[in-house]
Write the structure tokens for this entry.
Amino acid sequence: MNPTDQKKFAPIGHKRWAIAEGYIPETSHGPEPEMTSHESICVLNASDQEAHLQIWIFYADHEPVGPYSVSVGPRRTKHVRFNNLKDPEPVPRGTEYSSLIESDTPIVVQHTRLDSRQSANALISTMAFADTEAVM
Amino acid sequence: MNPTDQKKFAPIGHKRWAIAEGYIPETSHGPEPEMTSHESICVLNASDQEAHLQIWIFYADHEPVGPYSVSVGPRRTKHVRFNNLKDPEPVPRGTEYSSLIESDTPIVVQHTRLDSRQSANALISTMAFADTEAVM
Amino acid sequence: MNPTDQKKFAPIGHKRWAIAEGYIPETSHGPEPEMTSHESICVLNASDQEAHLQIWIFYADHEPVGPYSVSVGPRRTKHVRFNNLKDPEPVPRGTEYSSLIESDTPIVVQHTRLDSRQSANALISTMAFADTEAVM
Amino acid sequence: MNPTDQKKFAPIGHKRWAIAEGYIPETSHGPEPEMTSHESICVLNASDQEAHLQIWIFYADHEPVGPYSVSVGPRRTKHVRFNNLKDPEPVPRGTEYSSLIESDTPIVVQHTRLDSRQSANALISTMAFADTEAVM
């Protein structure tokens, strides 16, 4: 397809998403980084604007930490590993958390974990919870 | 971040959630409590009020049992293992159930099970079903 | 709790649900029936009326089969294995299908599969898709 | 059931769906094609019209590729493996992507992955994200 013919996609998604479950296992089996235990959000930005995300991590026993800033280009996907978030601080392993994702452009967010604590890996995935009323 | 600068989060979530699937496997492999077969709800309370939850457990052959009372602090997450619920009575293992979660503050609820009946664990997770019309 | 004090629950759920994914693996490992490869729907009926469900199974290459009739008592859960549906005909193994669930009372439906084709079982679960506009 | 008595189903679903997570593992264990690592969408078309789908694949580092054209007959299900999409080009293995599914008829879409990189397979499944406002 000629770039000048690039299809325009109608917006899809929402600007605020939450994931109540969060946990990066402390141990792993198998080759890194592919089989390292990890938790990630997969983000689809089907719009024609760059999406600027702010991620907040909520904990059981202290105030939320954030914002972690992530950008997703127009008509692009990005798979963000929580393991790799560094600023303002790394997300601790073996700790329960929740996350809130705010974007200036509608996006779709899906949550996935690879758990390789045992020799056979386990996977979970679910659509994140969309705040359908957010106007930002 | 200075506590006096703590970000305020717009409310997100709903006050009533249901999980139709429920089952705590009777057996486990691996170190306890991390790898014990369990079922849990992960709750995000992004609001500035403490959330007071009442959980009801529905069974196949007798009346629902509850309420189990759980609190989640403002701007906090809590991962609640059904295995650990005790009052009014423990949730039996190897028994099919459903659950209903009612809160006085909007929350987000996600359901997760770790099944370690076999040597390699299996995981499931899904967002709970939100009653989007609940006014409590 | 005294039976005469039984809590009344506000209705929760919808009357039409769909599950696009359906597949009962042909083989299993581990003790039956607990570890038999199976696919099930978990139904929560929090209302005070018995719910009468009609399930239709959609196939890739022929007309839908149904209705399969299932009842769920008031304030009860029921886990229905597709493996056990018999009338009008059993659901074939190793065959791709989808399902549609219609109820005369609002219910919540969750889909789960246990796949024990290999020695370590795998699990999936997701909330079914609710038809939020159904008036029946 | 006599074909002339075939039940008519009220429409269910939506015309636009998105799946943010996408990844076909590069390796597999077990007999092909059943246990080949794959990712698929399961589509239910409960309507009386053939559904014409256009699938677009979004990548991290270049423009979306599509449309992949898929048809699902009236009152039929179809399980579409991303592994098998060929035109305009195959979906690469070991690469992160998202997908957008547009249909001229309401459908229900569910996302599933079988990951058999290790000797015990892992499975994920979740309902896709529905664009509830799409009018096409």
In short: The mean pLDDT of chain C is 87. The CA atoms of residues 24 and 31 of chain C lie 17 Å apart. The interface with chain D takes residues 16, 18-23, 56, 58-61, 63-64, 66, 88, 96-98, 100, 111, 113, 115, 117-120, 122-129, 131, 134 of chain C (CB under 8 Å).
